[in-house]
Write a structure and sequence with these properties.
Blueprint (H helix, E strand, L loop, with lengths): L1 H18 E18 L4 E17 L3 E15 L3 E17 L11 E16 L2 E7 L2 E8 L5 E8 L7 E11 L4 E14 L2 E15 L1
Antiparallel strand pairs: 1-2, 1-11, 2-3, 3-4, 4-5, 5-6, 5-7, 7-8, 8-9, 9-10, 10-11
């Protein structure tokens, strides 16, 4: 699956040499309050990990991104059980809205796009994996001249009850190139017979290039 994602991303990365206006990347620490539901029972616990978010503006109205999440920990239902996962999401976005760039106006923008999501999990020694094709919707807007908010969600429509996620984030610039970012997300993710639900709390630094 990694090879497939690279084949999807690499030609567009090469194109950014002449088209991209902004490249954003953030490395984040992630803490998750999780439920793992198997056929027999529900396990609850805390997962820790890292998340890498990247975004490439390919001109004014088009962007592409690659997100990577890795997490692990122990979940409990009478006994302790190991759980770990990794998730890769390649996605595109068509952007529209009131991005004026003016220093006197608060900007806002909307986005809609498609993605490829591959998730693998290891639950008590059993391995699961699945590839999905979600639709992305997003909005971002300035709260003040210095602080902005991002809201994003995605789901594969024919699997909405089992696979969906919603994110809300705050961006606080420290300089023209560096921002502090904080995200909260709520998600439901079914992989074969395992359903991974919960909430993520993410904080990190975002760099603009």
């Amino acid at each position: 699956m990694i090879r497939f994602l690279l084949l999807f991303i690499c030609p567009l990365l090469l194109a950014h040499q002449t088209l991209a206006n902004t490249i954003r990347g953030s490395l984040n620490l992630k803490s998750s309050s999780a439920q793992i539901r198997s056929v027999q029972k529900t396990h609850k616990g805390e997962l820790d990990g890292v998340a890498l978010f990247t975004s490439f503006d390919m001109g004014k109205d088009y962007a592409l991104g690659l997100d990577v999440k890795v997490g692990s920990g122990k979940v409990f239902s009478g006994k302790s059980t190991n759980y770990s996962f990794n998730e890769y999401i390649a996605h595109t976005a068509f952007k529209f809205g009131g991005r004026s760039g003016s220093l006197t106006q608060l900007n806002y923008g909307f986005s809609v796009g498609l993605g490829i999501l591959h998730k693998s999990a290891n639950f008590d020694g059993l391995k699961f994996s699945e590839t999905q094709y979600p639709i992305f919707l997003g909005v971002d807007f300035d709260i003040t001249k210095r602080v902005s908010m991002r809201i994003k969600g995605y789901s594969q429509l024919n699997k909405f009850d089992d696979n969906r996620a919603a994110f809300i984030g705050i961006v606080w610039p420290l300089s023209d190139k560096v921002s502090i970012v904080g995200h909260y997300s709520n998600y439901s993710s079914k992989i074969n017979e395992i359903k991974h639900c919960g909430s993520d709390y993410i904080i990190g630094l975002e760099m603009n290039f």
